[in-house]
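Milestone M4 deliverable, item 7.
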Amino acid sequence: MNRAIIEESIENILPILQLGTSIPILPQFKDLIHFSLKNYKVKAILIKENKRKDSLFKKSSIIGIAIIYNEATTLYFGFFKALNHNKNIIQKLIDEIITYAKDHNFSYIRGPINVPTILFGYGFMFSGSNTRTFIGRSVDPPIYLKQFKENGFYEQFTLDTYTLEIKKLYFESINQYENEFDFIMIGIDDILNYKDHFIKLQSENMPEHSQITPNVEINSQTILQYISNKHILDKLGWITLHLPSNTIVACGYIIPNPYDSHVISLEHVVINKQYQGKGLIKFMWARFMQYLTGLKKDKRPLYGTGFFNINNEKMISFIQKYNSAWRERRHIVLEYKL
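Output delivered:
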């Protein structure tokens, strides 16, 4: 009979973490992953094959893995995989997660949320999605989503990945913003100086359907650490400054994709609620596209991608209209009420 154990040592979890994701764990990711697992206080549920007594402590004996971590009354899970996607092993992992949640008096279970999400993403893949390797976009066969639903898990978030063309845009209506706002790309040397501004904007202004990862501060620190060390572009963050008040009212990131230098991921675009719905997005987007299309040929991305909750109809319509965006993937984040 296969045996489940709880592993609490980050040092022991790191060497086997690749078992839980379809995205290659490159050497340059190791420090960032360690940072994220440590700060989220991650544990791992491991299913080990009991064929031989001495195999219990060998990596080759692990046939299932899921990481778990928590915030308040919710137990999160991620890096959920079974050897050969075996149905019985998947069920064993699901049972162990539910048992752990009950034993520790959690009210909800949510996932998969694969920290650091900037590398490994959210959700189980929906059937028919594009399966090529891409940062933050896990690839999972349909059996995972199906089996979790059979165990009473329901869809909490539906996240679509859209790919858009990087091209110059011009909106006549943005001229009114030129004297009141400044759009500034932030370089590697400066980006950490804006950490507190980025965290504040995200925690206070992102809609509930966009706040998927627990603990905004840890997530923001992880993103900033990644883009300040691993980069393909000269400037990876951006802010919009309200000149009269010298206040940062919007921000976002460009996330390099190590698997395809022609494609970047556009992340965490957020605007202060006071300035939302007033056309500022067109000003920022035109300046952003101007920056990207003005890069030297060897640094210039051709396409951008972004996760969008299906409820974010305004932004989806915007990129479809102006950047000829199309949907390539869908991922589902699940929840279970105890």
